[in-house]
Every structure is written in structure tokens, then in C-alpha cells.
Design goal:
Blueprint: H1 2-29, H2 34-46, H3 49-58, H4 66-80, H5 84-94, H6 96-107, H7 132-151, H8 155-178, H9 184-204
Length: 212
């Protein structure tokens, strides 16, 4: 009965992974898109300075060294507290970044490099598809903040943690486009991979409503 109830979720996960692979093929064949340039320009031109600074801050967790040190500390914290099941799930959620790295090496899409695209923070040197920030935020940070919220004693803290997850995941895509580091399809690919990876880890770990 549990597997029957979780089957739609598994189908959705596999569908998202298939869409991610299909988008990767399309991006490799069409590394530059006039429509995506329009999206980037309009976002950069219409974003107020205060919101722009907020979007710059949102991307901070995805840059080294904090992109390695903070997740490692969170996983170690769960492990040392004896919650090794959660620590293991978070570790596997974090491995979505490895899939992202491999995809980047295969697709080799150049980063946005157009005179109309403003890049306020130094452009990363790796490939563009998918957005590693979006992958990590959607897979690891969503899993970590949900795990912390599930264990929080106070309602207000649970609300803060869930709200933080929503804000991080919901705005990191805009942040990556606003900073000129990624195209729209890089961000969409990041959400597809990160979301499907999060769902897969929940499914395999029994966290998808599969309790007796």
C-alpha cells in the first residue's frame, strides 16, 4: 500500500529527471537564445537596487568556501547528535551537486557573455548548465531546513525554517539570472534536477509519507 501511494511521486521524479536530460540536449544544441537574453535584460533593468542587493546576498551560500563548509557542518551535526539516518539523507541530497558537475562537463554551455548583460559579481569559470546554486538550494538546503523544522520544538521556529526554505529556493533562480551568471534554461534545469533529486532522496529514505 505504501508503494502504491508513493508511485505518483516516483513518476513525477523520473519525469523531472527526463525533462532535465531533454533540456540539457536542447541547451547543448542552442547555447544562446535571444528570448533568454530578453528575460535577463528585463529582470536586470526592472529590479530595484535594494532588491538587487538582496538577490546578491541570496547567492552567497552557493559560493565557496561556505558552499562546502556549511553543508558539511550541518551533516556532521546530525551525525554527531546520533541522527545518522537524516545525516545520510542530507549527504545524498548534497550529491546532486555531483550530477550537476558531470552535466556541466558534458553540455559545456558557456556562461552569459553579452554586452547587454550586466555581471555585478565576478563570473564563475565553469560551464553554465545547470545552475549549481539552484541545484544545491533545491536539493540540499530544502532537505536540511525541512529536517530542522521537523525537529524544532517551537511552532514559530518551524515557521521561520520553512519560510527560509521557501525564500531560498524561490529566489535563488532569480538571483542567478539577475547576477548574469546563468540563463533562464540553466535555472529551469537546476530546479528540475534539484527538485527531482530531493524527491528521490525522500522516496528512498522513506520520507515521502511512507510511514506505517
Amino acid at each position: 500500500m505504501r508503494r502504491r501511494h508513493s508511485l505518483p511521486g516516483l513518476v513525477a521524479v523520473l519525469g523531472a529527471l527526463a525533462a532535465y536530460a531533454g533540456l540539457a540536449i536542447w541547451v547543448r544544441r542552442h547555447p544562446e537564445s535571444p528570448c533568454e537574453l530578453v528575460v535577463t535584460r528585463r529582470l536586470q533593468e526592472s529590479t530595484p537596487p535594494a532588491v538587487g542587493r538582496f538577490l546578491e546576498w541570496i547567492s552567497w551560500l552557493g559560493f565557496p568556501p561556505q558552499s562546502v563548509l556549511v553543508p558539511s557542518a550541518i551533516i556532521a551535526g546530525f551525525w554527531l547528535r546520533g541522527d545518522r539516518r537524516t545525516a545520510t539523507q542530507l549527504f545524498f541530497a548534497w550529491t546532486a551537486s555531483t550530477v550537476s558537475f558531470v552535466t556541466k562537463r558534458l553540455v559545456r554551455r558557456p556562461r552569459p557573455n553579452h554586452p547587454d548583460v550586466r555581471v555585478p559579481i565576478a563570473q564563475p569559470r565553469d560551464a553554465s548548465y545547470p545552475s549549481g546554486h539552484v541545484v544545491t538550494y533545491t536539493a540540499f538546503w530544502l532537505a536540511a531546513l525541512v529536517a530542522l523544522a521537523e525537529r524544532a520544538r517551537w511552532l514559530w521556529l518551524r515557521v521561520v525554517l520553512v519560510a527560509s526554505a521557501v525564500v531560498l529556493v524561490g529566489t535563488v533562480g532569480l538571483s542567478r539570472i539577475y547576477l548574469g551568471h546563468h540563463w533562464l534554461t540553466d535555472v529551469l534545469g537546476g530546479y528540475l534536477l534539484g527538485g527531482s533529486w530531493y524527491g528521490l532522496v525522500r522516496f528512498l529514505g522513506g520520507g515521502d509519507g511512507q510511514k506505517e
